[in-house]
Design brief:
Elements (H helix, E strand, L loop, with lengths): L1 H30 L5 H26 L10 H20 L6
Helix pairs in contact: 1-2, 1-3, 2-3
């Protein structure tokens, strides 16, 4: 019985950590002034890579139970979508670049 509680507590900690990293990764660039957002976006992308490593670890350790950790995926993927949209716009017309 104690083993099940330990696994549940470990997974709960992993889930909360996953959601916290995803939220910070999403919100960090919005907290900076527009001129200083470049560094914040880079840090957000680094946090996204940490989140991906955490999710891989979760799937290895907990199997399908780790699907709960994917609730942070929309927050993580936001900046990848924004940056790829900017890159696509720049590729089509250089005047669209920020």
């Amino acid at each position: 019985m104690a083993k099940i509680e330990q696994v549940t507590n470990d997974f709960r900690s992993l889930l909360i950590t996953s959601l916290a990293i995803a939220t910070v990764s999403f919100g960090l660039p919005f907290l900076r002034p527009p001129g200083a957002a470049d560094l914040a976006i880079r840090i957000s992308l680094l946090l996204a890579l940490v989140w991906i490593a955490l999710i891989v670890f979760a799937f290895v350790k907990y199997g399908t139970r780790a699907l709960w950790c994917l609730f942070g995926l929309p927050f993580i993927s936001y900046w990848f979508v924004v940056l790829s949209s900017i890159a696509a716009a720049c590729a089509q017309n250089i005047k669209n670049c920020p």
